[in-house]
Amino acid sequence: MSSKLTIVDIKHKLYNKCVLIRVDYNVPLINGVITDKTRIFANLPTLDYVFLHGASKVVLMSHLGRPNGKVIEKHSLKPIVPILEKYTGRNIQFISTNINSDDIQTEISNTPNGSIILLENLRFYNEEENYNINDLKVLEFCNNISKFGDIYVNDAFGTAHRSHSSIVGINLPIRVSGLLLSKEINYLYKSIDLPQRPFLAIVGGAKVSDKIPLLYSLISKVDEIIIGGGMAFTFKKIISNMKIGSSIFDSKGAEMVRSILDKAKLNGVKIHLPVDFVCADNINENANITIVDDIFGIPDGFYGLDCGPYTRKINDDIIKQARLIVWNGPQGMFEISAFAAGSHATLYSVVNATANGAISIIGGGDTASIVEQTGLTNAVSHVSTGGGATLELLEGKILPGITALTNK
Questions:
Q1: DSSP designation for 69
Q2: Is 39 annotated in the active site?
Q3: Catalytic site residue 365?
Q4: CATH of region 187-395
């Protein structure tokens, strides 16, 4: 990232320029109402910064949901307009005109200086997700959106791992990272490349196979790993043939369990797995719930849906000792309150460790939702706005959205 231009590097060039900013407004909507504004708030510092340094106007572009190249009203970005108006105090011009028409450039030009222009959902166009330099329609799409600004700013960390047209296809000579993207990349890189120790990773989620690249990457960096969530049952089944009832078993991931454990042993990394479980005969609030240990296992017809109280205590002791904590993936099915205790206990342990001087990084997606729902965002060091992007960065991959920026 240090080899790429940031918005701070070119602040003297912003004066009287129209700035094209790719943001990630892929926010949750219920009946047209935005239920979590975190991603909108995350870009406000970048908007303030460009106007502070004299930008004439801003053009925002984003995606929302998966409309797959079709215009679907429930995926419109229009509900974001009043939020932006309220928190920027600026005129927001929403433009739904087809990006490939000649009229849209006129609309942008006629918008008063000091305004913010929000374009309609980029994924209403097939060309957005199907970037291909040999496709003339895609190249035309990229050329058209490149005309909407003088300077391009990528502030969409949540999609920086995607090779989409608005991420890698902009042909403006100045392409820089915004304040959010720069913060995300720098925080994650610096913390992981020069970690404080002990360095603890907490990895959850349903399938081992989804987290294999992450686990392999972390094993070469961390001192200890706590494994939880549904993926723990695949580990327990392979290691000790524990009964797992109707719990998730990842047959593809199971093939890699021994390899992961061998690599951890070779690197001197301690792997911690749950020793007791909250299980139920149904996956709902009204299920019959019981707590079992790993010797008894999960009864037939029951699902393991959270870690048990003894595991929470053990994990708390481990987390207390850590000086750097990276957490990606819930410890149980937190969406149902009966099975959220393990994830909440993990969060409170991480918060306490942070208060005692540890650096804590929450790796986006479901894990970020747990933090936001409990109102403890400011009680940890960093909550990433990315899901897949955070994972790929932690896996050591190079993000296409970073590669596409202008070199210093």
A1: T
A2: yes
A3: yes
A4: 3.40.50.1260
